[in-house]
Design a protein that fits this description.
100 residues; alpha+beta; two-stranded antiparallel sheet; 4 helices; 2 strands; 10% strand; endonuclease; nuclease; HNH endonuclease
Length: 100
């Protein structure tokens, strides 16, 4: 059994999250939109940053409040395809332009 099998898995990209890799909890409904105390999902920090660089708090609360919905957003789908080719410990600035 590979040691990485013991690591938690990122809720967005599905890659393992080793303990030495930046990680964060994403509120599926933003706290400012009533999600305080609501469901969260563990993500690589790079994946979490990409979500917030792509979507507004209102869009997250209204249309993208599940991991399945997040994966359907065109920019996030492209990001996921890109980041899945990287090792679990990969770190980078958020690629691409910030949302308009």
């Amino acid at each position: 059994m590979d040691k990485s099998d013991d690591y938690p898995v990122c809720g967005l990209c599905g890659r393992p999250i080793p303990p030495d890799v930046p990680q964060s909890l994403h509120h599926l409904v933003p706290k400012l939109k009533g999600g305080k105390g609501g469901p969260t999902v563990l993500l690589h920090h790079i994946c979490h940053r990409e979500i917030h660089a792509t979507l507004t708090e209102a869009e997250l609360a209204r249309d993208y409040n599940t991991t399945e919905a997040l994966r359907t957003h065109p920019r996030l789908a492209k990001f996921i395809a890109w980041v899945r080719k990287r090792p679990p410990g990969f770190r980078s600035k958020v690629p691409g332009k910030r949302r308009r």
